[in-house]
Amino acid sequence: MPYVLIQVTDENVSVAQKTALIHGATELLVNILNKDPATTFVVIEEVHTDNWGVGGIPVTELRKKPN
């Protein structure tokens, strides 16, 4: 019974995108590992950008910097 946790920042991920992620992750496990989709669990966790850091800097701060 596979369990997949997908963590993304909470920056407007749509229901359609989440559905596609769930479907895609499930299909990957079915196709590669021959897992039963009925017992494959996919969880999407949205993390606030204050709680996600890259290179020692919170993503909230990174988003404020000009490109």
Automatic annotation (TrEMBL):
Task: Tell me yes or no: is Coiled coil among this UniProt entry's keywords.
Answer: no
Q: Where is the 4-oxalocrotonate tautomerase-like domain?
A: 2-59
Q: Which UniProt keywords apply?
A: Isomerase
**SUPFAM superfamilies per the record?**
Tautomerase/MIF
One family from Pfam that matches here is: Tautomerase
Q: Which EC number applies? A: 5.3.2.-
The answer on whether this UniProt entry bears the keyword Isomerase reads: yes
Q: Which InterPro entries match?
A: 4-OT (IPR018191), 4-OT-like_dom (IPR004370), Tautomerase/MIF_sf (IPR014347)
Query: NCBIfam families under this entry?
Result: taut
In terms of PANTHER family, this protein maps to:
2-HYDROXYMUCONATE TAUTOMERASE, TAUTOMERASE-RELATED
The family note in this entry says:
Belongs to the 4-oxalocrotonate tautomerase family.
Q: What is this protein called?
A: Tautomerase
The protein's organism comes out as Undibacterium amnicola
